[in-house]
Amino acid sequence: MNAETARQFFRKTYGSEPDTIGSAPGRVNLIGEHTDYNGGQVLPLAIDRRTYVAMKRRSDDGKSRIISDTATEGAEFDARSVERSGQWWDYVTGVFAFAEEKSALPQVDAAVTSNLPTGSGLSSSAALEMATAITLAQLAGDRRSLKELALLAWRVETQFVGVSCGVMDQFASALGEKGHALHLWCDTLATEQVRMREAVLIFDTNSPRSLRGSQFNVRQRECQEALELLRQRNPELSNLAAATPGEVRAAHLPSNLEKRALHVTEETRRVESLVAALKETGEIDGDLLYQSHESLRTLYECSTPELDWFVDEARKIRGVRGARLTGAGWGGCAIAVGELEALSGAQSSLISSYKSTFGLDARTWLTNAEAGAKVETSAK
């Protein structure tokens, strides 16, 4: 899939050529899970699966229209007065809702195409938000930076759609660079690009989940409760990730809050260690990935039998350096990192064995670190 696919779908739908096409990738997170909304550090990378948004100003200035090649239903909406619907197009219309100078926004025809699976933990929502944001910005003459557009997309996710997440997904989709992972400090929004040359196998367990229906918001509230209790002992604590594991243990928090806080404080330190290893050796420290998964399984309690199975199986494969779940968990995807030949050769046997074990058809993709959001074509 590419921009030409998006152009053809738009033309087939609306009978004309789009003015602008933008795209944005999904992401996998190498390490740093559930640290972003706790002010910690993360290390995601953009993948080679993308979402495209083709858009055209409406000459008759009627209502805007939106359609997707992966959805059975589209919608009409007023670009200057958007209302939340609870449907998939909120990720698109929310960008209009948070745009500057809404009274000057054009009514548009928009078409979405994507080869990025939904509900798998690869940030399909962030990709859709970012692809919409960069396309609308180009169409409307909005000169905000990619970082500013990423923050707009994050506001759409948290304030319009209603998922209480951190900034990682939108930043990874916006700022990814080919051949690099994005080291992001979520409290200050500082970033650095870290050379990442190893291949990544994405294993979609095909056990989809929705963050709206999972325990994601519950975990976010638990982390906030833990932070409030820790601040009774240390009022200067800026966020949960800034606490030390020693502080957490010394606070004698309720058991579930202690587990969540220990994961967050230890996980953000694993990010630091992995970045240091990449800079020094150019290779992933696989032990840190396995430690991360075990913490997500036992302390954050967001893994599943399917995700655990993959990590256990990946550990047996020669040439695999490390593996863990990626994304929020409760289903979705896991990753294995290592030698391209080893990962490629293991795909079919993993899929077959997984089918025998769980009766589910897994999907796999090999990727390297790819580029972030961009304008593909524009008549401007």
Topology:
Elements: H1 3-14, E1 20-31, E2 41-57, E3 64-68, E4 75-77, H2 90-97, E5 108-114, H3 124-140, H4 146-161, H5 168-175, E6 180-185, E7 190-195, E8 199-204, H6 216-233, H7 245-250, H8 255-281, H9 286-298, H10 305-315, E9 320-326, E10 333-338, H11 340-358, E11 363-367, E12 374-378
Parallel strand pairs: 3-5
Antiparallel strand pairs: 1-2, 1-12, 2-5, 2-6, 3-4, 6-7, 8-10, 8-11, 9-10
Helix pairs in contact: 2-3, 2-4, 3-4, 3-5, 4-5, 6-8, 8-9
Describe the structure concisely for a colleague.
This protein has helices at 3-14, 90-97, 124-140, 146-161, 168-175, 216-233, 245-250, 255-281, 286-298, 305-315, 340-358, and strands at residues 20-31, 41-57, 64-68, 75-77, 108-114, 180-185, 190-195, 199-204, 320-326, 333-338, 363-367, 374-378. With 380 residues, the chain is an alpha+beta fold.
Description:
- By secondary structure, the chain is of the alpha+beta class.
- The chain has 2 domains: 3-196, Ribosomal Protein S5, domain 2 (2-Layer Sandwich), CATH 3.30.230.10; 200-367, GHMP kinase, C-terminal domain (Alpha-Beta Plaits).
- It has 11 helices and 12 strands.
- The strands form 2 sheets. Strands 1, 2, 3, 4, 5, 6, 7 and 12 form an 8-stranded mixed β-sheet that branches. Strands 9-10-8-11 form a 4-stranded antiparallel β-sheet.
- A hairpin with a 6-residue loop joins β9 and β10.
- α4 packs antiparallel against α5 and α8 packs antiparallel against α9.
- The longest helix is centred in the last third of the chain and has 27 residues, at 255-281.
- The radius of gyration is 21 Å and the shape is globular.
- The protein starts with a helix and ends with a strand.
- The model has no long low-confidence stretch (mean pLDDT 93).
